[in-house]
């Protein structure tokens, strides 16, 4: 009985398998795209957060000082500098009450909520979306300096580039998936049709002919596989059927033999069917193995991304630790020298006080002893001023000055407590330069400290400073524009620098010291470059190293301080009237009050700004006005002079207020008139200084 064979059944099954495999692979690739996009997005947001954090840290001190000094124009310039950074969309600065002070770029809220300020007091906040805007991220932080909260800052970053990059990645993946989905089934169909379906169809057609009686038909299958074996078996079967048929025709009587041969032919056909089933099973196993391979490679890729993220986090932590070590390194080296000098000064003061007590009991003149004690106090003041300058405690102010005294003070200060000597050769007519005194102090300190390290068994640091004119023909060896400069050379007799390391010493984090951070010379190079100068080095191993610093000479007037005030007592200017003294230290109020009595004034006292304003208002109401007010700039836990002077000027616009503080580098001390003060005296001060200031303003 003839059975109709569906010629499309095998192709349909194979196509179904191919399409299912491609769909599964597309699903796996879609998962890969999803997780890859998440990882890329997280990485970009981390980079964005790090960029905004670093940008804030770089400008934090300037912004804090400008908020503290209420210099809105300088603050606006700082915000514009931040906005100039690529990708920045806006910056907003709020005071400590959450009220907007200044902003640039995109629109900003006028105030911050209490919840937002409370959160920012605890930690900085990075938002991936701002008001559901997926193309805008923000970084908010509290502005705090010297333990005092000054306000808050919010920086906005345009994250369109992040989304654009993710879209590009998605387009590439989707294009790949589409091409894979289209061409893979097509290629597999062509290959399967050529090597499986076409031979099977050929074998099927031959079987149909054989079924119709074409005994002895041959199948031409050249494939050397199971299908080729099936063709060979079919040919043998066809030949056998032909022979059997011939035998039957020759011997019809042997019907039993014919039946036996027919059974053998059916058995052979079953064997062929078994071989076909085995081939199908092998193809299914191949698809399963392919799926497992894809899963393994996907898992390996995810693990690699996680490992890369961990390495980036560890590197960032290491950089922060190195910067912290650099900040502590110089201070630790100078601690011994500072303690030595302070102990010497205190010995002079206590010794003179004891001697004054003894001579006072004997009725002798103690004036000279008190003068020596006063000189020792001002030596202590000079030492604290050097320490403030070294640590960059004050607001950076560029001014024109002759750096001769700065060079000598810095070198002596940096080598305190060491076994290294120093020599100076500074031109007496050295030209002035326009520099940030604190930053140049930092450059010289870093180089001199390194010189001391290079001479562990002692030696000499030789410092020279001279004028120099760079001409056009010299600009090839020194990358500076032609013109007048000063050159500061610092030479040591230490171990020198290896020739292979000379080109790397100004690179960040490059160091040959086991405990070094590699930031000192990189910082020095950056500072000199920003001053329009150049720093170079010459060195020979075992002979020593010389650093040359070039700074442009300035034609402006010199703003540096003159010679120190003579400590000897001169005739005090006498006056009369009431003077109000505001200071949180009772001993300071008492001593200043006694000094004012000697000058003929009647002192009154207040421990903070609130009490000073109250007493001034009462005096105005009683028509007994104070001639002047002496105010401490900083009152811990209370109203200081900067705020109190504004209230007093509201009470009396003609009030004469003198600011007094031990923070000599505070911006208020440098520009006291801008804050409403009439005069300034820096603690500790001599009675002659106080007398001169009072005589000048009253």
From TrEMBL:
<dbReference type="InterPro" id="IPR036890">
    <property type="entry name" value="HATPase_C_sf"/>
</dbReference>
<keyword id="KW-0808">Transferase</keyword>
<feature type="domain" description="Response regulatory">
    <location>
        <begin position="578"/>
        <end position="698"/>
    </location>
</feature>
<dbReference type="InterPro" id="IPR036097">
    <property type="entry name" value="HisK_dim/P_sf"/>
</dbReference>
<feature type="domain" description="Histidine kinase">
    <location>
        <begin position="337"/>
        <end position="555"/>
    </location>
</feature>
<feature type="modified residue" description="4-aspartylphosphate">
    <location>
        <position position="632"/>
    </location>
</feature>
<keyword id="KW-1133">Transmembrane helix</keyword>
<dbReference type="InterPro" id="IPR004358">
    <property type="entry name" value="Sig_transdc_His_kin-like_C"/>
</dbReference>
<feature type="domain" description="HAMP">
    <location>
        <begin position="194"/>
        <end position="246"/>
    </location>
</feature>
<dbReference type="InterPro" id="IPR011006">
    <property type="entry name" value="CheY-like_superfamily"/>
</dbReference>
<keyword id="KW-0812">Transmembrane</keyword>
<keyword id="KW-0418">Kinase</keyword>
<protein>
    <recommendedName>
        <fullName>histidine kinase</fullName>
        <ecNumber>2.7.13.3</ecNumber>
    </recommendedName>
</protein>
<feature type="transmembrane region" description="Helical">
    <location>
        <begin position="169"/>
        <end position="196"/>
    </location>
</feature>
<dbReference type="Pfam" id="PF00072">
    <property type="entry name" value="Response_reg"/>
</dbReference>
<dbReference type="InterPro" id="IPR003660">
    <property type="entry name" value="HAMP_dom"/>
</dbReference>
<dbReference type="InterPro" id="IPR003661">
    <property type="entry name" value="HisK_dim/P_dom"/>
</dbReference>
<keyword id="KW-0472">Membrane</keyword>
<dbReference type="GO" id="GO:0016020">
    <property type="term" value="C:membrane"/>
</dbReference>
<feature type="transmembrane region" description="Helical">
    <location>
        <begin position="12"/>
        <end position="35"/>
    </location>
</feature>
<dbReference type="InterPro" id="IPR001789">
    <property type="entry name" value="Sig_transdc_resp-reg_receiver"/>
</dbReference>
<dbReference type="InterPro" id="IPR003594">
    <property type="entry name" value="HATPase_dom"/>
</dbReference>
<dbReference type="Pfam" id="PF02518">
    <property type="entry name" value="HATPase_c"/>
</dbReference>
<dbReference type="Pfam" id="PF00672">
    <property type="entry name" value="HAMP"/>
</dbReference>
<keyword id="KW-0597">Phosphoprotein</keyword>
<dbReference type="GO" id="GO:0000155">
    <property type="term" value="F:phosphorelay sensor kinase activity"/>
</dbReference>
<dbReference type="InterPro" id="IPR005467">
    <property type="entry name" value="His_kinase_dom"/>
</dbReference>
<keyword id="KW-0175">Coiled coil</keyword>
<feature type="coiled-coil region">
    <location>
        <begin position="262"/>
        <end position="328"/>
    </location>
</feature>
């Amino acid at each position: 009985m003839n059975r109709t064979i569906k010629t499309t059944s095998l192709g349909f099954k194979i196509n179904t398998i191919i399409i299912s495999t491609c769909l599964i692979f597309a699903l796996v690739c879609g998962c890969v795209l999803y997780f890859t996009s998440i990882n890329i997005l997280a990485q970009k947001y981390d980079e964005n957060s790090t960029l905004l954090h670093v940008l804030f840290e770089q400008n934090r001190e300037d912004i804090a000082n400008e908020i503290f000094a209420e210099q809105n124009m300088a603050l606006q310039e700082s915000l514009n500098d931040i906005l100039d950074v690529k990708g920045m969309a806006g910056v907003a600065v709020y005071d400590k009450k959450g009220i907007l002070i200044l902003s640039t770029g995109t629109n900003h809220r006028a105030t911050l909520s209490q919840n937002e300020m409370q959160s920012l007091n605890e930690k900085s906040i990075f938002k991936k979306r701002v008001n559901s805007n997926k193309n805008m991220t923000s970084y908010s932080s509290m502005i705090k300096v010297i333990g005092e909260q000054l306000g808050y800052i919010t920086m906005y970053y345009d994250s369109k580039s992040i989304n654009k990059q993710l879209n590009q990645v998605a387009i590439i993946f989707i294009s790949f998936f589409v091409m894979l989905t289209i061409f893979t089934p097509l290629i597999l169909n062509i290959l399967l049709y050529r090597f499986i379906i076409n031979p099977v169809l050929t074998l099927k057609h031959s079987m149909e002919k054989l079924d119709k009686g074409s005994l002895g038909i041959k199948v031409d299958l050249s494939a050397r596989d199971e299908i080729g074996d099936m063709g060979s078996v079919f040919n043998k079967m066809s030949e056998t059927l032909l022979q059997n048929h011939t035998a039957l025709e020759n011997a019809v009587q042997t019907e039993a033999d014919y039946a036996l041969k027919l059974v053998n032919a059916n058995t052979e056909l079953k064997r062929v069917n078994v071989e076909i089933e085995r081939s199908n099973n092998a193809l299914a196993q191949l698809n399963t193995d392919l799926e497992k391979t894809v899963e393994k490679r996907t898992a390996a890729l995810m693990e690699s991304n996680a490992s890369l993220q961990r390495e980036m986090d560890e590197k960032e932590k290491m950089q922060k630790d190195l910067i912290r070590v650099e900040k502590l390194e110089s201070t630790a080296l100078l601690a011994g020298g500072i303690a030595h000098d302070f102990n010497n000064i205190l010995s002079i003061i206590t010794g003179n006080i004891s001697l004054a007590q003894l001579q006072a009991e004997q009725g002798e003149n103690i004036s000279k002893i008190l003068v020596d004690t006063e000189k020792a106090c001002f030596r202590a003041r000079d030492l604290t001023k050097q320490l403030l300058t070294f640590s960059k405690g004050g607001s950076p102010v560029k001014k024109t000055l002759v750096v001769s005294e700065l060079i000598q003070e810095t070198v002596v200060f940096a080598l305190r407590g060491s076994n290294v000597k120093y020599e100076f050769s500074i031109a007496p007519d050295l030209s002035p330069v326009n520099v940030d005194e604190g930053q140049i102090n930092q450059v010289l300190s870093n180089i001199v400290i390194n010189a001391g390290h290079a001479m562990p068994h002692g030696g000499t640091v030789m410092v020279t400073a001279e004028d120099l004119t760079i001409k056009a023909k010299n600009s090839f060896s020194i990358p500076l524009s032609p013109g007048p400069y000063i050159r500061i050379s610092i030479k040591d007799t230490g171990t020198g620098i290896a020739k292979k390391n000379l080109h790397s010493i100004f690179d960040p984090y490059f160091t040959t010291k086991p405990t070094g951070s590699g930031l000192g010379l990189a910082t020095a190079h950056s500072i000199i470059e920003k001053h329009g100068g150049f720093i170079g080095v010459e060195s020979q191993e075992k002979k020593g190293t010389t650093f040359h610093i070039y700074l442009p000479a300035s034609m402006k007037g010199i703003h540096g301080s003159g010679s120190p005030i003579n400590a000897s007592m001169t005739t005090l200017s006498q006056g009369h009237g009431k003077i109000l003294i505001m200071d949180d230290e009772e001993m300071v109020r008492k001593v200043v009050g006694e000094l004012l009595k000697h000058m003929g004034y009647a002192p009154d006292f207040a421990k903070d700004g609130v009490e000073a304003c109250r007493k001034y208002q009462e005096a105005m109401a009683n028509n007994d006005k104070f001639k002047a007010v002496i105010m401490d700039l900083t009152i811990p836990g209370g109203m200081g002079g900067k705020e109190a002077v504004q209230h007093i000027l509201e009470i009396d616009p003609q009030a004469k207020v003198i600011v007094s503080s031990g923070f000599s580098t505070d911006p208020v001390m440098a520009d006291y008139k801008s804050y409403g003060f009439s005069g300034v005296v820096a603690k500790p001060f001599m009675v002659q200084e106080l007398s001169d200031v009072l005589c000048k303003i009253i």
